[in-house]
Amino acid sequence: MVTVFDTSALVAALTRAHPRFAWADEQVQAAERPALCVHSLAECYAVMTAHPQLRYPPTQVRAVLDSLTQTWTVLPLLPADYFDAMTRCRDLGLQGGAIYDTLIAQAALRAGAVRLVTLNAKHFVRLGDDVQRLVVAPEG
Description:
By secondary structure, this protein is an alpha/beta fold. The chain has eight helices and five strands; from the N terminus they run E-H-H-E-H-H-E-H-H-E-H-H-E. The chain has helices at about 5-15, 20-30, 40-50, 60-70, 80-90, 100-110, 120-125, 130; strands spanning about 1-5, 35, 75, 115, 135. Helix 1 packs across helix 3 and helix 3 packs antiparallel against helix 4.
């Protein structure tokens, strides 16, 4: 069963100093088949190399992500996924960066995921019942 991790959960799971590391690591350990949307590779690289409190060297982040893709499922995005995500955003009146979370949700739905792990539940629950039922987030 596929468990998709969004960028926020992925960064937490890869960063021991992250305040949600223990929770995220627990989710990784519980995942039968951990997965991420291909788009999250770029987002994760951006966050981990530029975030003021992280700022890992690009070489290190590249190596970590490369290693991760050897054991996790990387869910591709097709042109149809982009248009489906845009349609969902349009229909829900969402603009701007909401498209990125919608792309992750789209990949999770297409993969038949049973869970979508995130630190940003509100970004996903607004995307509809089909996405909301997948969301796993920490309490509080």
